[in-house]
Write a structure and sequence with these properties.
By secondary structure, the protein is α+β, with helices and mostly antiparallel strands. It is built from nine helices and eleven strands. It has two domains: about 70 residues; about 210 residues, no CATH class. Strands 1, 2, 3, 4, 5, 6, 7, 8, 9, 10 and 11 form an eleven-stranded antiparallel sheet that branches. Helix 5 packs across helix 9.
């Protein structure tokens, strides 16, 4: 795993000739017509990369790093994760964003937190089961281990929540009005909504090379999977649309429940059940 800065990533992109990596992380493309190799090597961060053995004195980049950047640039599909953890006092939390990209059988993870970026290989897969295992391993690494919360799964109409819930008090009134929740379910739902006590990591799926109506040809799946760590344990929330209505399922955040929710989400991409083997046509 390579840890550097946004400037360090910029230098590596110029030296490898890779213009675009993970724009969803707020990373702009490099402009080879004006951002030259000499300009990159003159940047102070280039000396740091040389000291770490990432580039040599001629500007050649370590082959493993070249492979990682190539996977990001040529990805067939990806997961995009945004994580926020509660912080003490009135300080604003700094979100962490991660792209987990697959090109052919290779997987690469690119993390960004403010100006710090981490880049590394995430494994390989040749089947859906192996691809799911790569994803599970990376989610466990990024979110850390946690015991699942203990409660019965809950299904809620998201449209009703958006229409009726404005704050914590209105959420409580809404949940009580359903008349279908027990005390444990009520407590968990209220706790997951408290961003001052619960960490959240939301995950969406992307597929490239799709006629999406934009020049990028990227399809963003409309459903979302969110991993929520509460004082009572980990919760998984699955947001999706069915029969023209939007729904949310909340369940204990066991490894198997998280894996199943993510697999359901990626199977909603245009590639459907072939998401793990899909190759885009350039």
């Amino acid at each position: 795993m390579l840890t550097t800065t946004l400037d360090g990533l910029w230098v590596l992109q110029i030296l490898t000739g890779i213009e675009v990596v993970a724009p969803e992380l707020g990373l702009r493309p490099v402009l080879p017509s004006v951002e030259t190799k000499d300009m990159a090597l003159a940047h102070p961060v280039a000396d740091e990369l040389k000291a770490e053995g990432v580039i040599d004195e001629h500007g050649a980049v370590d082959p493993a790093v070249v492979e990682w950047l190539t996977v990001l640039a040529r990805r067939d599909m990806a997961l995009w994760l945004q994580a926020v953890r509660p912080v003490a006092g009135e300080a604003e939390p700094v979100p962490t964003q991660v792209t987990l990209a697959r090109f052919a059988q290779w997987w690469v993870s690119l993390e960004r937190s403010d100006i710090v970026v981490r880049l590394g290989g995430a494994g390989t897969s040749s089947s859906e089961g192996a691809a799911n295992q790569v994803i599970s391993n990376q989610l466990e690494r990024l979110c850390g281990p946690a015991s699942p919360a203990s409660f019965k799964p809950v299904t809620v109409a998201t449209d009703r929540i958006l229409g009726e819930v404005k704050d914590r008090d209105s959420l409580r009134r809404f949940l009580m009005s359903t008349g279908e929740l027990d005390a444990d379910q009520m407590h968990i739902l209220l706790t997951t909504a408290d961003t001052g006590r619960s960490a959240q990591a939301s995950i969406i799926a992307l597929q490239t090379g799709v006629d999406s109506g934009s020049e990028t040809r990227v399809r963003v799946e409309g459903s979302v999977v969110t991993v929520i760590d509460t004082p009572e344990g980990r919760v998984i929330a699955e947001h999706f649309e069915r029969d023209g209505r939007r729904w949310m399922i909340m369940a204990p955040g066991s490894l198997s429940n998280i894996a199943a929710a993510v697999n359901d989400m990626v199977r909603r991409l245009p590639a459907a059940a072939d998401w793990h083997a899909y190759r885009k046509v350039v």
